[in-house]
Amino acid sequence: MNNNMDGEMFPGVPRKIQETNSSLLHNPPLAIMYGTATGPQTGVSTPRSSSSLRPLVLSHGSLEHSFLIPTNIHFQASQIKDRFLASLPEPTDELAQDDEPSSVAELVARYLGFVAQDVNEGEDDAQGSYEEVLKLVLNEFERGFLRGNEVHALVATLPGIDTKKLKVVESYYAARAASNRPIRPHESALFRAASDEEAKIYNVFGGQGNIEEYFDELSGFVQHIRGLCGGLNHRICGTLAECCLAAATAAADSWESFEKVAVSALTVLFWIGSRSQQTFPRTSLAPTILQDSLDHGEGTPTPMLSIRDLSQAQVQEHISATNKYLPEDRQIAISLINSARNMVVAGPPISLYGLNLQLRKVKAPTGLDQTRIPFTERKFQWEKATVFPNATHVLDFGPGGVSGLGVLTSRNKDGTGVRVILAGTVNGTVPEVGYKPELFDRDEEHAVKYAVDWVKEHGPKLVKTSSGQTFVDTKDESNLGSAACHGCWHDPMYCSLDVLWLQP
């Protein structure tokens, strides 16, 4: 291969890239040809010879990645690259735009998805060059970024908003589908722990949830994670309409049986909705009532009202005060008990508006979450329904994300050693729960996380000394190095000064 007068092997390619790839062209290591020499591998290898490789540089702002492409498909790969880069916005200094990549992995994944789209749309030539480019880039993505792990585990480490992370997932699985490479059933570290009886997993479904965008969440799931839905046939719990989903999923033991059971479940759900509408048709409210409710941050009145941070007795007191002024067919009642201080009241919207008038004297300031729940659920005690024996993990399949049943269940389970994972959310702001990447991560050492069991962590234990004496061991004794004697004390304004703190 002849160099030009300036010593550049490939004009237009940065010198740093040329210096790196020059040695690779003449002495290609095994890791470049077939993947790294160590560690688990995924994907297929694309044999190539050193005499037929040319570099292809993919760059956007400060992001840059290079491939070694066989000469016979280099032209096609370059064409796709040029069209792909033209589809991206102008790079910014901090790569902060929502529609531009924020990491090298995301840049390569987007290019991968772009190639997959061309293959799916039949843009390939008679020799199948685009498909060859797709297979090569897919193999390089798996070798260089996944490194034997799953794509959700990768996106958990990437910067940027959730939309960008989901774009990486979508592009990767689109490439796998376009190259006719089905997903292999690799078990994650969490599911291996469950198989080894080191973890016990339960599942919950939230139905419509308590957000208006529940259908957007479902459609987004289908869009980004096609082909990942598998069979779950045990340990499933849901509320009312969601029980149909749970029962249908648990009853099916094959795709054929699931299709039959699904028809029955949809039939039941149809009639639930139909009879509910017949019994309780939708009504309109006076514009002044609607505007007053909106002005006070209470949203549009619906047949169900969520109340938080009041006990059941306190809520019932307000309900009774409201019902005094209502006819029997317009009265309201508690219909759902999520926890000791989180419940839902059901009834006509105009009656619940009257209850809100009562609650305005004691409720939290406007702007806090006063979530409303659709009128599709009966009286139900979620705390009792989620008493899962020996549970270590609960998977919340949503919808609702951090506003759904998962966070509520996590609060109810606080200190019991149960970790809740939001299976439909790739990332979130609540540190007490886990997110979707934990379901797929294969890292044996770091992927499986357990919640703290306060009884095991802080409870007293009996220990026997070398002399055979038995003592009660507590955290204080371990920290202080001696037995501690505790006494109850108060601020002097509440008790006599004669009350002293007892020293060890």
UniProtKB/TrEMBL annotation:
UniProt-listed InterPro entries: Ac_transferase_dom_sf, FAS1_N, Fungal_FAS, SAT
Domain Fatty acid synthase subunit beta N-terminal residues, every copy: 52-177
Protein keywords: Transferase
Gene3D superfamilies: 1.20.1050.120, 3.30.70.3320, Malonyl-Coenzyme A Acyl Carrier Protein, domain 2
A molecular function (GO) term: transferase activity
Organism superkingdom: Eukaryota
Span of domain Starter acyltransferase (SAT): 245-377
Pfam entry (one): FAS_N
Protein name as catalogued: Uncharacterized protein
Species of provenance: Monilinia fructigena
